Structure formats: C-alpha cells, structure tokens
Amino acid sequence: MKHRFLLWAAAAVYALNLCSCASKNCGEHLKWTLDRNGTLTVSGTGDMTDWGLFCDTVPWESKTSEIQKAVISDGVTHIGNFAFSASALTAVSIPDSVTSIGNQAFSCCDALTAVTIPEGVTSIGDYAFYYCTGLTAVTLPDSVTSIGDSAFNNCYGLTSVTILNGITQIGKDVFSGCYRLTEVTIPDSVTHIGENAFYGCGALTAVTIPESVTHIGENAFHGCGTLTAVTIPESVTEIGKGAFSECINLGTVTVLNETCSIGGGQDETFSCERIRGCKGSTAEAYAKRFSIEFEALPEKE
User: Which domains does the chain carry?
Assistant: First the structure.
C-alpha cells in the first residue's frame, strides 16, 4: 500500500512538472526567451495562451523572480491571463498589435512603475493590474471599450488616472483602494459607474460626473474623504446606497434629476451637510428622511 502511494505521489509530481515545464512555446505561434539580464522576450504572431493558477501555469513559472523586463514583440495580439502575475517585473513594452490584456496579466507586479497602454487595446481583463503598487499614473486610450472588474484595484501608488473616450462603463472595484488618487478624468462616453468603483480613494479632491452617466453604483465613492462638493447631473436616474457615504468632508451634494432613485429610498447614500435639488424632488425627500439641510434650486422658467 505504501509502495502504491509513493508511485502515485511520484506520478503526480511528474505531471505537475510537465505542466510547468520550460517549454519555449507561449502560444500557438509564439516563442519566449529569457536572457541573463532578466529580459523576457515574447516573439511571433497571434495570441498568448491564457494560463491559470494551478496546473496550466505559465512556462516561465519557476523564473518569475528573475524577470525584470518584458518585451512583447510586434505581432502579438493578446497578453494571456496570469502572464506576468507576481513577477519581479519593473518595465514592460507593449506593442500596438496587442488588442487585449488578460485577467491578472500583471497582477501583483509591485515593482512595475509605469505602463503605456497603446492605441489598439480594446479590453483590459479583471484584476489585470491588481496590486501594482508602483504605478503612479495611467492613461486609458480611446480604443479601450471594456475594463474588467478590479483592473487597478489597490494600486495605491496611483495619483492620476485619465480615461479617454471609448469606455462606457467603469466596472466594479476598478480603482477601489487607490488611496493616493487625487485626480480622475471621466469622459462623456461613460454611462455607468460601477459598485465600489472608487471606494476608499481618500485623496480624491474633486470628481466631475459627465451628463452621459445614468447610473452610479453602490459605494461607488464611499470613503472619498477629501471630496467637498459633488454635482450629480440630470442624466443620472439611479444612485446606489452608500455611493457617497463616509465622505467626511462633503459639504454640498447637488442632485439635478427630480425623480432620481437615491439608495432605493431607504438606505443612507450621502454623508454631507447639505443637499441641493428641486422642490418636491426625491432629493428633498431623502434630505428630510435623514435630517440633512435641504436647499431648493431656483425653479425652471
């Protein structure tokens, strides 16, 4: 019985070794090399493989601590899931040929200090840059139309984010925990700001919500403690519960839509001193319910 168990254990180890072997393939038509200086180069054409956490790990799994720089050659169209996750990467070169960045492709690369996302990238996967704490600024080009949940979650070195026209939704937890973020540009293309999108961005001093936005999710700006004033445009029809809760310095919130649903009518949504809105509006009803000073806007002629 013991002998059988040892054979089974040896077979399991062998199988795992096969899964993480030093294959030089990283896609159907892609090869990789790693030089003595820690530069990993991916060359060829087409998509990188999408890897996982367990058996189907990246072929350079045993060398992630040696990878200092990644050079992705022109011709590569997709950066695979988990491709460089938790590596010692300090720099990466992404060519214009890349159209998508996979889930957790660069997650936990805490030594990565800068990344340029080229025109041509249309989608960024879930947790793609999660916990890249060395990043200080990010620009999402207007080619990007989809950004996954938690894509930049806990990138607490970020101070500035620029989102160009193209994105229609800022998903769940995308910039949650980026507590040094002071500036964000939300373009007119955005219609939906997701749940916890900017949760805990305590250094965010101002945010302009464009008139294209129709929905602000639960806890979207929860804990943004340096915000002092917010105007929510008439286009917004729904504000989720807790959207601006724990914003301890928030003085005035202006709600321009008379019938906007605020926290479902029951839940605390704003931590503020004053609410401005139309007389007889849902904003006035909310202010009364939670004993907040209300200021009626001038009636439209």
Answer: 23-135 (3.80.10.10), 157-301 (3.80.10.10)
